[in-house]
Write a structure and sequence with these properties.
Order of helices and strands: EEHHHHHEHEHEHHEHEH
Mean pLDDT: 91
Number of domains: 2
Structural class: alpha/beta
Number of helices: 11
Largest sheet: 5 strands, parallel
Oligomer: single chain
CATH architecture of the largest domain: 3-Layer(aba) Sandwich
Shape: globular
Strand content: 5-15%
Strand order of the largest sheet: 5-4-1-6-7
CATH topology of the largest domain: Rossmann fold
CATH superfamily of the largest domain: HAD superfamily/HAD-like
Number of strands: 7
Helix content: 40-55%
């Protein structure tokens, strides 16, 4: 029988897009970008993140820059590598989940309690987004980026890789994501999986798992 200590929760693992940060579909930046592409703002997710090129970017087959170049070509837009990418222009009005960030900061005591990001993302996640744009890279003990690992959620391999790098067992980690299939995959491996709907709900669920910590 495992000891109670082995069941102590020692890590919080969170998704990036849709959990740590949200991109409103009706924001001014979304409307501007949609107008540039000649689509409705509600179509941006399907047009940009639903493309086969984005799928290739998520597993590192093409870089974030190559993805941006291809989108520009698809919509017959002039490409200038010195300008912010199309995804960055959409991010202009992103909303950070400050309640989740504050909770994580209050819990973080490495190596006793670690905070990680596990994201299906392109190669620009760590430096250009988390560090340069949002200035929150220092808030995490670990970032696992699908583009750098060549595997994406909900593949069990990327969850196991994250747990291994944190040095914790599945039952010692909380996982938060806005995609139901990613949550289900984490739960199947034994992680305490929370389906993100909004900040208040997610914070309450995390606190419920941690008790009086």
């Amino acid at each position: 029988m495992q000891s109670l200590h082995n069941h102590t929760i020692k890590a919080l693992i969170r998704d990036f897009g849709g959990g740590l940060v949200t991109m409103p579909h009706d924001s001014p930046s979304a409307r501007r970008l949609a107008a540039q592409l000649g689509v409705e703002s509600g179509q941006l997710m399907a047009e940009l993140l639903g493309s086969s090129d984005w799928g290739r970017a998520l597993v590192g087959e093409i870089s974030a820059e190559e993805f941006d170049r291809r989108v520009h070509a698809r919509y017959h837009l002039p490409y200038d590598a010195s300008q912010p990418s199309l995804i960055f222009r959409w991010f202009a009005d992103e909303t950070l989940s400050h309640e989740l960030l504050d909770l994580a900061a209050s819990l973080r005591r490495p190596p006793d309690f670690q905070v990680a990001v596990l994201s299906n993302a392109a190669t620009d996640l760590e430096q250009r987004i988390l560090h340069e744009k949002l200035n929150i890279l220092h808030s995490f003990d670990l970032v696992v980026n699908s583009a750098r690992e060549g595997v994406r959620k909900p593949d069990p391999a990327i969850y196991r890789l994250t747990l291994e790098r944190l040095g914790v067992a599945a039952r010692q980690a909380i996982f938060v994501d806005d995609m139901a299939e990613n949550v289900a995959a984490a739960a199947a491996l034994g992680l305490h999986a929370i389906h993100f709907h909004d900040q208040r709900q997610a914070v309450a669920a995390i606190r419920g798992l941690l008790g009086d910590r």
